[in-house]
Design goal:
Layout lengths: L1 H22 L9 E2 L9 E2 L3 H5 L11 E13 L4 E5 L6 E6 L10 E12 L2 E11 L1
Amino acid sequence: MMMKSSLSALAAVILTASAATCQENPYPGRPGLAYPEGTPEETIGCRDLAKTIRDFNPPVSERIDLWASGPVTIVDTDKVLWYVGICDEPGIRVLCVTYSDNGMRIGDVVTVRGAMRIQDAKHILLDPCLASPD
């Protein structure tokens, strides 16, 4: 009986620790960013992308996910992958490399989420990425 209660106590500690870790914001003041496969506190819109990535220089070896919503500006395929772009100039543009267009069309508002690579001051690449209509 003692072993069963010890295992239950250990399980409770692990679950509590996991819940606390999941609730931490790894990038305070940078909405839309999350640990790999994590969920940020909020999804970022096109207008606020510049603020989120301003002066942000993550290590190349560290995966950081971005969740962003905005109007589709590009939907294209090479017959293997799909390229879904959101947001337009003069703001930051986001390109999502994914496996399906999910019926998205230019002008639709969608959410993209995936491994973020900042290409330059005006371009973000998410690869791999998931895209879905809002």
